[in-house]
Amino acid sequence: MDRHSPFSYRCGACGRCCHNQVIALSPAELLALARASGIATGVARARYTERRGSLLRFRTDGGCAALEGVRCSIHPGRPLACRIYPLGLERTPDGDRFIRLEPAQGSAGRYGVEGIVGDYLTDQGVDELLGMAERYRPLIAAMRDKIETLVDFDKIEPREFWRHATAEALRESNFDANRLIDALFDPDGVGAARASIEATIAAHLPILHAMIASATDPAKLAAAAILLAVSLGYSPAEAIRFPTEQQDRLK
Ligand code: SF4
After folding, report:
1. What is this structure's pTM?
2. Ligand 1 centre from 195 Cα, in Å?
C-alpha cells in the first residue's frame, strides 16, 4: 500500500493492540514521549524503554509499560508505530510502503476503505513526528565518515568489524557502556533540555555531532550508528559502509 491506497480504521479503545509488540523508538520518539509525560528523557528511558532506550518496554503480563487499564497514559506522545497502527511501515530506498497488519485477537477496531492511507497518517500526527525523527538520520553518515578516519580496513576485516558492531548494537543486556548511545536517547541528560521538542532537537544535534567529531573508539561509533539506523526504522545496512573495492564486489 502507498499513501493513496484506500484505508480507514476506527479504534475501539480496547487496548488489545497494546500487548506483546516489538516497537522501536527513535531518539525523537523518546523525546516526544517524555515531553507528553512531563518527565525528563532519562526518566522516560528508565520507565518506558529497554535496549538502551531504543525499544518500548512491555511488562511480563504482555501489556505496554505505558498502558493503564485499556488507556494509553502517554497518548499525545505515543510512538510512530502506535500512531501508524494497524498499518506497518517499511522504509525502503524507493520510499515508504505500508502493510495492513492483522488485528490483535479480540480487537474492537474496525477496518474500512472510507479514506486513504495518507489522510489517516495526517490525522494521527505521523508526518510531523516522522520529520523530527529523520533529523537524526545525517548523524549516521557522520559516524560512518568518522569511523573511516579511525579504522585501517587493510588491517581490520570489515565484515567482522560490522558484524561485531551489529551484535553489540542489538544486544538486549550485557552491552558495553557507550556514551554516544546514552546521549542519543537522553537529550535532557546531555544539556539539550528545552521546552519544545523542536528546540530540544535543535540543541541536541550539535552536541551529538561534537561527540562524534571527538570520538576515538570506532567500535562504539559503529554500534551507535547501527542502533540509530534501526531505531529510525532502517535496516542495519543503512549504517554499514565497506571500503570501496569491497563495496564494488558486493554489487
Ligand atoms: S505507547 Fe500507548 S498506544 Fe503505544 S503500545 Fe503503549 S499503551 Fe499502546
Report:
1. 0.92
2. 23
